[in-house]
Each structure stands twice: as structure tokens, then as C-alpha cells.
Amino acid sequence: MPTSFFNWLFALFLARRVTATPPAAQIVVTVETLGREHAGKSAARLMVAKVVQKGPQESGLELTSPDPRALVKLVNVATATYQGLQKAGMIATLEAEQMLCHLCEADRLRAVLRQRDSIGHLLSFGEGSNDKRFEEQLVRHHENLTAADVIHVFVSCPPDDRPETLEQFENELGLLTNNLRVALNHRRTVRKLAVAVILSKPDGVYGSAEEAKAALPDDRLRDLFRRLVLLLEGSERVGLAAVFVVSAFGYGKARLQEQTGQATGAQAGHSLFSRLDRKHILKENAQPDPHNLTALVWWSLMAGLALKPAGAQGPEIARTAKMLLSDLKAMGGWYVPLQCQPTRG
Predict the structure, then answer these.
(1) Burial grade of 328 (CB within 10 A; 0-12, 13-18, 19 or more)
(2) Is a pLDDT exceeding 70 seen at residue 264?
(3) How far apart are CA 121 and CA 274, in angstroms?
(4) Which residues are paired to 193 by β-bridges?
């Protein structure tokens, strides 16, 4: 018989062996978000497309879509949104959409990133609501938070230092601290949680990353988020936590949107926690260039993996977490680690 037949037969044998072999259990890191409306949650999730486009980091790890069709959709949606952001800002999230990404080393799947957006209005318009669907969404949101591996807490950078602006910022911190405390108290697993506190939209205040870093040293960030820092460092349910400063658009890419209407409050999609916000849109023909977003994604994966319980996949999980941490150091990720409670026993 011709050699090609044996090659074909051997290939068929291998294919059947591969098909018959059950795939290894996927290692999933679930990220949930917490933040009021217009805090930059949706923009950061959308710009993960830019992280995917960057390709492999120094370790060889790469964030990508689960399959080519998902990649096409991700790029198309991101591109269309970039173009729309040159005319109007991000619209309020009405449904908590979930995004899936794969962390790969060459052709080997190392982890799955499952990241969900959240509906900010659930936090700031929650009191006194008689809407049954609204209440169901709020309950589901808190259930998602209690089961997360990692929580991203988004806090919008104050646009100025006026007393009313600083009061709004403190009210926002109080709202977030209260919601996070509830999520921690209702956590049903002994597995510890990782939390990233994210100062979003700094590019609306600072002209460059260098200017932002000079104005926001580690001590200043810890002081700015003191309420959240005390909660995270004092909780026995938190294993890893850090403060990040993330610009989804990138510095110098956005401009203030002109006010065209007189609508205020809920009519404009704002609550008392966001009424003083300044809305930014992309400059004409500008392409977003997120700053520190890759570091946030890499830290979230690293922290989520590091807190996974040891088991059969423990050595492989530990290896991937070390690779992620090595990449974080190589890329110069900007974050302030918090001193969480040690694991007992």
C-alpha cells in the first residue's frame, strides 16, 4: 500500500485518540465589577479588545478570544464603538453582559477570564425602587459579587477639588464600601477574594501618565481610598488587593463633550453620586490607547489563580501565576499592593 495511506491512517488514529481523550478541566477566573453609573466600567471592559490585539507578553502568555468568530465580533464591536465615541459618550449599561477571554501559552489554554460588566444604576438608584425587574437585577448583582474570584471596584477620578466635587467623591466611596462589605459578609466560600480598587478616567484631569504618577504617589492613593483600604486590609475574606489607576481611552485622546440639553438627574442618566461628572468623548480620528489596563487584566488573572485551592492542577496554576507576575514586573504595571490579612492555618 502507498505510504500516503499509512500517513492518513496514522493521522486518523491520532485524531480519534485526541477526540476520545477528555479535555482538562478549565481553570476559570471570574471577575465581577462594582461601581456607580458613568464610573468607566463599560469603557474598561470594551478596551480589553486592545489588550487582545497586543499579542503575547514577555513570558509568552497571550490574552485572546475563545475562537476566531468571537475575535471577529470583539474587533468589530470595539471598532464601531470607537467611531461612535467620537460623537457621544458611553451609554449607560442596561444589561450585565459577560465577556470571555482565553489566556494561552502557544496553543495551550492556561486560564479562562470570565468578566462581567455591571449596571451602575442598581447601586445609586436602588433606594425605594418598586420595579420588580430592578430588584431582581440587584439581587443577582450581589449574588455575582459574593461568588467572584476577583472584584473590580471602579471609582471615577474627581474632575476638580471643589468642595461639592469632593463631597460627591466621598459619598461614592461610602456607597462602594457599603456594597463591598455586604458582598464580603455574604460570601459562602472559605476561598479568599482578590479586589482591585480602580481610579478611572484620570485622563480627564491629568495630561499624561507621568503627570498622573507625580500627582498620585502610593501614599496619596492609599489616603484617597482610605475607607476601602481599611476594609480590604482588615477583612479576613480578602487575600490580595491593590489600587490601580487606569485610563481606558489613554491620555490626550479625549475631549469634553458639549452640553446640548437641560436634562439633569435621572433624566440624564445621573444620580447624586455622578451629577457633577464631566462627560468625555474621543477626539476626532483618535484611536484609544489604554494605559495600565493590561496590568489590571494580568494582575486580576494572577490574583485569581494565586487564590485558587491547591489540587491536581495546583502546580500548573502556580506556574501560570508566576509567569503573570513576571510579566507585570516587565511591563512596569502601576499599582499599589495592599497588606491583606494572612491566611490562617
Answers:
(1) buried
(2) no
(3) 10
(4) 238
Q: Other CB atoms closer than 10 Å to residue 259's CB: what's the count?
A: 10
d(CA 243, CA 246): 10
Least confident interval from 57-66, 268-277, 330-339: 268-277
pTM over 0.90: no
Domains by residue range for the chain, with CATH: 23-337 (3.40.50.300)
State how far the Cα of 181 lies from the Cα of 284, in Å rounded to an integer.
Answer: 42
Q: State how far the Cα of 164 lies from the Cα of 161, in Å rounded to an integer.
A: 8
For the segment 68-78, the average pLDDT, to the nearest whole number, is 77
299 C-beta neighbours (distance < 10 Å), count: 24
Give the Cα separation of 17 and 22 in Å (integer). 10
Per-residue three-class SS string for 246-301: EECCCCCCEEECCCCCCCCHHHHCCCCCCCCCCCEEECCCCCCCCECHHHHHHHHH
Nearest-angstrom CA–CA distance, 332 and 169: 28
Percent helix, strand, coil in the chain, to 5, is: 45, 20, 40
Q: Output the CA angle 179-185-191, nearest 5 degrees.
A: 115
| Contact assessment for residue 246 and residue 198, using Cβ atoms and an 8 Å cutoff | yes
pLDDT in tens, 153-200: 999 999 888 999 899 899 999 999 999 999 999 998 888 999 999 999
